[in-house]
User: Fold these one by one.
Assistant:
Number 1:
Amino acid sequence: MTHDAAASPILKLMNVGKSFRKQVVLKNIHLSVYPGEVTVILGPSGCGKSTLLRCLNGLEFINEGSIRFNELELTPKCPQWQAVRERIGMVFQSYHLFPHMKVIDNILLGPLKVQKRSKDDALAQAEELLERVGLLDKRDAYPRELSGGQQQRIAIVRALCMNPEVMLFDEVTAALDPEMVKEVLEVMLQLARQGMTMIIVTHEMGFARAVADRILFMDKGSIIEQGNPTSFFSEPQTDRAKRFLQQFYEIETWKGREVI
Amino acid sequence: MELLGLELLLQSMPQLVKGLIQTLMIACYSIIFSTIGGIVFGALQTIRLLWLNLLTRFYLELFRSIPILVWLFFVYFGLPLFFNVHLSSFACAVLVLSLWGITEIGEVARGAFQSIARGQSDAGRSIGLRTIQLYRYILFPQALRRMIPPSINVYTRIIKTTSLTVLIGVTEVVKAGQQIIERTGEAILIYGCLFFFYFLLCYPLSVLSRKLEKSII
Ligand SMILES: Nc1ncnc2c1ncn2[C@@H]1O[C@H](COP(=O)(O)OP(=O)(O)OP(=O)(O)O)[C@@H](O)[C@H]1O
Ligand SMILES: [Mg+2]
């Protein structure tokens, strides 16, 4: 792991549990995320990955345990969710850009209306970020005029322009055509190299291996295995993780056969 | 005979137009109040709070199950009797049509808000917008666009329903027509004229609504 052992975690989850009515979706989650660390969460569909991310910025509230974000205790009644969300960026599977606003207004909404920054300052940063993801020429376009991959890169910029301390990514390439996946993953990889603290849910195994400092494997609402990517992918400890990875390798071999 | 009809029409026109203006005033006020109130009412219905939901439900059912005419009578004759509140027939007409219009536009607005994907709220919240800001910058502008065509349909219904207010003594266009008929006996000509007026008011709106419906999707 890359973090310095003396540093204190940005996010610390202790015994977190969450249920929807009677259905338990998360249980006994213990997790510390350190500054600059890239955590990738893997797991079968429905195991609670999205819910876990959504609990971190208060889109869902936990029923048990505690979440600490830097110095703040994040309880459901915590009055400063807005302040926390400003500092935790989130990117979604289906982008969720605001369709009635131009790209640049999508990006500036948070910095101007929530953070009350000056227009000049926010605009300069927005343009710099757009430049970095190669979409400066789309600043005045509407979301519907962009491809999925472009929309997703804009969504990343929208989150980044708030200068978050942590970025959450929930299967951000799952809705994209294969040729657009790469352009989005490259942006994320670049972010990771620049030292952004990231928590990523993904089904792209190659990307997970390349970007992660640490892999968490979830099943039925619990983290059942964690480790560095090399050891996780080469020798998973639990049967569940083995079977999960097996499925991906099988699909890879199908692809191989098709090519032949 | 031909000439006589035309002459009569010209003679009665000022009175008919006066009635028409009254009709339009009632419709305009009601449409304005319905729109403002309806948007708020629709937004309130999307908030999940039990007491609030019961309250809005109750209000909605009052206007769904009781005819407008009965409401007009109730407000015009009942309010002075039971509550000692006296309103002019014009005010009663605007009040009832607005209260009814609020439920109608409210339903339109609720549908529009609910048709906006949950992801829009999630995305808005995740950049730190407060609830008010979320409605103001994200949900409301999108809902408004979707609301326009069905709202216009409600507006034409409000215009048509103003004709009921004749029964609580508003001298709107139908009443004006009746007065002329009583005086002259030219029922067909005058009713034909009313027919034409309503058509002239409502048909363009209905065409507009259909056009917008196509262009917005
Ligand atoms: N708002 C909700 N109300 C009720 N149940 C929910 C809600 N959101 C999620 N769930 C349930 O919680 C469980 C975990 O869902 P979650 O979306 O976190 O899974 P996931 O790991 O992200 O799955 P996927 O890989 O398919 O995205 C699922 O069984 C789901 O049905
Ligand atoms: Mg998910």
Number 2:
Amino acid sequence: MNARPAAVATGSPTRPDTAGRLFVAGAGAGHEAHLAAYGPAPSSGTDLIRELELSGLTGRGGAAFPVWRKLAATAAGRRPVVIGNGAEGEPRSRKDATLVQHAPHLVVDGLLAAADAVRASRVYLYVRSGSGTPIRRALAERPDGGRVRVVVAPHTFVSGEAGAVVNAVGQGVALPTDRLHRLSETGLDGRPTLVHNVETLAHLGLVARYGGSWFRGAGTLEDPGTRLVTVSGDLPAGGVLEIPGGTRVADVLAACGTGPVAAVLVGGYHGAWLPAAEVDARLSPSGRAVPGAGVLIALGPGRCGLHLTAQIVRYLAGQSAGQCGPCRFGLPALAGAVGELAGRPAVGTEGRVRRLATTVAGRGACHHPDGTSRLVLSALDAFADDVAAHATGRCVAGGRP
Amino acid sequence: MNRTGLHVDWTRCDGRGLCVELLPDLLGRDEWGYPLPHRSTPGRLLTEVPPGSVADAEQAVALCPLLALTLTTEAAT
Ligand code: SF4
Ligand code: SF4
């Protein structure tokens, strides 16, 4: 899957226009191409936190928290640590790997700018094994590359959860830990710790150069700037796209050549199903179609959404780190019940699904149970007709439950 | 007036339910025995603890065999 930058490199250092910003330096860009496209690295004198507040940039790893706030909170502590997170545990997501492959210097610029802004004493990049080579190559090309230590993430769903990231970098164990306090108060070795997704850092690297109001030149008031999405499922050409914030889901699908769909899973395996009637919704952290980490999965007409949901929940149950009882026992039970719903449900199966999904939510050291619960409850809503049909032994998707 | 909350470290709790016995007004159990608050609380808390239950909650914290419970206080806004 290749990135499809919406803009081409201009050759001279200019502020990228609003359409595409992150891949302006071209495919597999080295440091020279990067500098030619974006100009010199931002100087650390500017008030980055203020510009970030102006920009409205939110986290691109899933939680959509205002970036400036996390920086401000971390900067208030002593000898902070900054970690760039490219673990991308979401199986259908490719955006972070694509970004690290084609725009590694933008990520490193952002990482170092964030580190300078909070006066960090240590800086890490945590990436999947496939991203280790491009990122090390990029670091070796830069005079300031020696400041960054690279840590490789295992291929598990929860490896990118912020607590697991800190645990992996500190102890080599990519498992979430119990957290009573925010990482900005106490994280790696008890120090204030800033964990940002690598796409967030790439945008941050641009805000550091061109400022907060430039960032707002793309996207909407609610979702300023651009964001990366990974589109997959029943469509002719999926992949990673850079889109302006607030783009309609239908327009993203159209850009991938998709015809009518039965539904779209927005936000990945911890996301929510959007029924066909609502695909005009705009992607926005506060709206009906919450992008999360930018994963969109199209469900073609004639495909059973309950069946796909059951497969995903079974996978998610298997990815429970098994540390927390309600997650360890609740998710397999939920997977079993959703599996029944996708096949031949008994009287009461739907009620049991709803009860289990509600019971597990919020009861783990990380958000894995909450996200799984959200997915399941959204499926009950979006596929209510299918649930009713399955109960009578039919499947509205065309006989194949 | 401070608000008291009860936090559980789910990675420690083994679900044998001593806290449920000590705090029946606040906690029930799920089908595997793990404490399930009667009223769910957003954020990192298992449940909020009303003033009348603080003493019982302190006891639960002290008696939890796996040291999984913590009381938190936060100034009411
Ligand atoms: S909630 Fe589940 S996935 Fe998260 S730490 Fe606990 S057992 Fe692991
Ligand atoms: S007493 Fe402790 S270990 Fe037992 S159920 Fe309560 S929190 Fe869990």
